[in-house]
Amino acid sequence: MKDVLPPAVSKWQFIEEKARALLESFAFRELRSDGALPRAYVAHRRWEREPVTRWYRFDRETVRLEAAVFGPAAPSADAELVAMTAGMLEDLGVPAAVRRLTVHASEEVCGLLAHLGVAHEPVSAPPLSFEVRAGERRLAAGARADELLPSLGGPRVPTLMLVVDLEDVVAAVDEPDESFEPPLTAYFACDGAAARAWAVKAAQRLRLDGVRAEIGHDGGVEEQRERAIGLGARLVVVVREEEVHAGTVVVEDRGTDRREVVALDDLESTIRQRVD
After folding, report:
1. What is the DSSP letter of 67?
2. Of these four, 30, 56, 61, 105, which has the most CB atoms within 10 Å of its CB?
């Protein structure tokens, strides 16, 4: 996999997290393995423990998301996997205008997809295989592979496989990378060592409670304020030693152009009120 730098990495994280959440809602469970899902299924003799197994894994080497369903042979399972894939790509933000889903399956499977409202190009040719493309890019592909496990030394368990090409999905989502980056809530622009020592403690409490904050460790206040603007910080907390001794800091709200002197004990609640 090639290097992915910020802010592009935020887009990747969004897509991976969205995909993971959707798979979990379909009762898939994540498997951490260096090998493919069918090999892990056979190696751990999973059919002895459960009649249906739904697994997925992120393959960092091939930059793919893999999912498998072991056990069900009914046409409804085929339609469910196709519909899930179509829903996933829609949820990830791939525009409907560029998505093209082709399904080779029985008339019963295609009928179920129509019943679910899944737009597709049907080809009556079982067993199931399907592909989603965006122009020249293949976004995802799946198939029924009931002969796969016997070829690996396992039993003949009905098997459905899905591969999602993450790199192509990321490219097909046309929103800019910057729009996926989480906003910086507060930037502490500090004047002096004592001010920074106080800011480190104040920011620590906020960060551990989920507030994204940055501290200016070098340079003067004006230089740090420019840095805060460059980072897109909503709030600039100006921390000067003499003001800290007096029990206050200045909060500059770049969203409203409001500038306010805030008591140290009220800073956390003020920050939350400004961004909620």
Report:
1. E
2. 105
CA–CA gap between residue 44 and residue 53 (Å, rounded) = 12
CA distance 218 to 190: 8
Look up tokens 């295609």; give the residue.
Answer: 110
> Do 115 and 164 sit in the same domain of this protein?
yes
Neighbours of 69 (CB within 10 A): 26
Q: What is the CATH number of the domain that holds 233?
A: 3.40.50.800
Final residue of a structural domain among 151, 177, 203: 177
Q: Per the structure block, which two tokens stand in for 240? A: 């000067």
- pLDDT tens, residue by residue, 113-167: 999 999 999 999 999 999 999 999 999 999 999 999 999 999 999 999 999 999 9
How far apart CA 15 and CA 173 sit, in angstroms, is 9
